[in-house]
Amino acid sequence: MAKTKEPKLEHSELAGEFTDDGVTVLVDIFRPAGTNGDWKMEVVTQDDDLIEWEEGFETDRDAFDEFLATVERDGIRTFLDDADEPSVH
After folding, report:
1. What is the CA angle 75-12-78, rounded to 5?
2. Dist. CA 19–CA 4, nearest whole Å
3. What is the DSSP letter of 7?
4. CA distance 46 to 8
5. Which pTM value belongs to this model?
6. Is residue 51 part of a domain?
7. Is residue 88, in this structure, part of any structural domain at all?
8. In a domain, 65, yes or no
9. Which of 31, 44, 69, 84 is the most exposed place for a label (fewest CB within 10 A)?
10. Which helix (H) or strand (E) holds 50?
11. Origin, by domain of life (predicted)?
């Protein structure tokens, strides 16, 4: 029985670390490689919390613009669980 391989992903050039207000998150924007499918976006916090957008985006720029709009509207700390609590590593 053939083992199902994970589909290869194409990552956007806009993906990467983003720092604001002393907080750094990893923004990952991707879609299945070799397709014109919708782009997906995830944000990974310093505490390895994962925030996913359920809706896909037509372009990677649309996804990144949505991330920037969220940071502008709610602040980057909106991605953190306990923004008021100091993080302990």
Report:
1. 15
2. 37
3. P
4. 25
5. 0.82
6. yes
7. no
8. yes
9. 84
10. strand 50-52
11. Bacteria
